[in-house]
Amino acid sequence: MNQKLASYAIHEENSLGRVYPYTSGIEINDNESIYAKDTRRILHSESFNRLRDKTQVFPVTDERTNSLSRMTHSLQVAQLSSDIASVLNLNTDISYTLGLLHDIGHAPFGHLGQDVLNELMQNYGGFEHNFQAIRIVDLLERNNPGYNGLNLTFEVREGLLKHCSQDNAKLLEAQTIELNKKFGTNLPNIAVRHLKGEQSFLEAQLVNLADSVSYLYSDMKDAFRNRILTVKDIFEAPSFKNAYDFIMKSNPSEIMPTYKDQKIAISNNDKAKISNINDYMSNVINIMYKIAIKDLVSNSKMLIADSGIQTLDDIRVYKDHLVTFTDSQYSIQKNLKTFSRERIYRHPKIHNERFNQAEVLVGLFNAYMNKPEIMIGGGINENESIARNVCDNISGMTDKFALYTYKYLKENSPELVQGKFSLPKNFEISPDKQTEKKRLKIS
Predict the structure, then answer these.
(1) 3-state DSSP call for residue 18?
(2) Beta-carbon count within 10 A of 223 CB
(3) Crossing angle for the helix pair 386-395 and 110-120, nearest 10 degrees?
(4) pLDDT tens figures, 136-182
(5) Cβ contact 296:330 at 8 Å
(6) Apex CA 256: angle with CA 331 and CA 239, to 5°?
(7) pLDDT for 7-51, tens place per residue?
(8) How far, in Å, CA of 24 to CA of 41, rounded?
(9) Which of 3, 162, 156, 211 is nearest to 92 (CA)?
(10) What is the CA radius of gyration of the chain?
């Protein structure tokens, strides 16, 4: 890496290294950074490959939709993270790697998958996709027959752990002590900052925000193209005014398509007009996206300069995050999340599918708890409970595989998908369409 790094950036020469004192074999490029090597291990992993068939927002199993998969989203976050890191003189390689890796722990069916598995695992330690990501890279993936996991660098593993409960942090502490004893090493616990209440390094901070920016504006574009959002909705989005002002300043004679234009085009099935409106509004959303990124970069530059930080240790004990938006843009991002939750994520077209998806996950959990030997995969880990084995297996499935497996079991062994495990009555799944429309004020 020929990049000139700030003193407080992640420097390869200061890396704490990997857990296992082994290489993965013949190295292709001796000049490649250790974090770029981690990227290669991730790209070739089964878990990353499965992200192509895991839902971001719109079900990837619905051929009628035109939307991102979780893999495409991860690639976008990786590139944006690297771009921002370059401008801030931070480490682009680890930023790209963390962006690529940040969603690897997600279960099938998006956030619903996490919610359902967490409910089913309440008596067995719960389920949280961020902690599951650590399980994947440290235990469930295999990069070498000599050890479990991908043997990633300490810094990547630490940056991946964005959130961590005290119980999980202590669990990782015990595992670290055991590994240090086994290999005669002295690696710290990757969760130590969560135990101490310290900040993450700047590259990890920027990946977290790159993720937020990427999914909010990508979800808006997908929702518009799939006719969940209208032109009127985009005009009412919290970030629209800034984009409109920018467009009018650049071209005062610009005429935007109206909601009426969109309704007429759809009513007449005027495909050319519909395509033009889609492209125009996608460009408007792209401008919103770029305004947010520009704000993030310029504000972060100022905060870092004013903070006086010089080292990684300075960052860890600093009072606040240093990679962040201005107060005004932060308010826009916060309001945009509310807007998206109400008009996209809870829209009947998306939300009502949660009934079927929850049924699939509960049925699979029951079947595998009833008869664990029928699970397809790497077998049973005897060091873990049956429930954790089942959870690992289901969370690693693609949406399509989960649907196929559940359908097969329900048709051929219906007694297995029934069992004591179910969701509580107050679990948040969309009610019937008419109630949902009324609640969301959708005509």
Answers:
(1) strand
(2) 25
(3) 170
(4) 999 999 877 778 889 999 999 999 999 888 888 888 898 889 888 88
(5) no
(6) 5
(7) 999 999 999 998 887 555 566 777 889 999 999 999 999 999 999
(8) 9
(9) 3
(10) 23
Q: How far apart are CA 40 and CA 100, in angstroms?
A: 10
- 410 with 363: CB under 8 angstroms? yes
Question: For residues 115-145, b (16+ Cβ closer than 10 Å) or e, as one string?
Answer: bbbbbbbeeebbbbbbbbbbbbbbbbbebee
* DSSP class per residue in 107-165: PSSHHHHHHHHHHHTGGGT---HHHHHHHIIIIISBSBTTBSB---BHHHHHHH-----
- Looking at residue 337, its amino acid is K
Q: Look up residue 372 and give its DSSP letter.
A: G
- Strand (E) or helix (H) holding 394: helix 386-395
Which pTM does this prediction carry?
0.91
Below-70 pLDDT ranges, the chain: 1-3, 22-27, 59-67, 425-426, 428-443
DSSP structure class, residue 55: B
The Cα angle at residue 361 between residues 368 and 372, in degrees rounded to 5: 5
Q: Which two tokens stand for residue 107?
A: 């279960």
Backbone angles phi, psi at 147, to 5 degrees: -160, 165
User: Whose CA is closest to 159, among 95, 85, 103?
Assistant: 95
Neighbours of 246 (CB within 10 A): 15
Which residue type is seen at 158?
E
Structure tokens at 11: 């420097």
CA–chain centroid gap for 72, Å, is 11
| Closest by Cα among 120, 127, 107, 141 to 369 | 120
Question: d(Cα 43, Cα 37) in Å, to the nearest integer?
Answer: 10
Distinct helix (H) and strand (E) counts, the chain = 22, 0
Q: Which of 140, 68, 126, 72 is nearest to 396 (CA)?
A: 140
Q: Which pLDDT score, from 0 to 100, does residue 435 have?
A: 42
Tell me 53's DSSP state.
G
- Helix extents (H) in 202-239: 202-225, 231-236
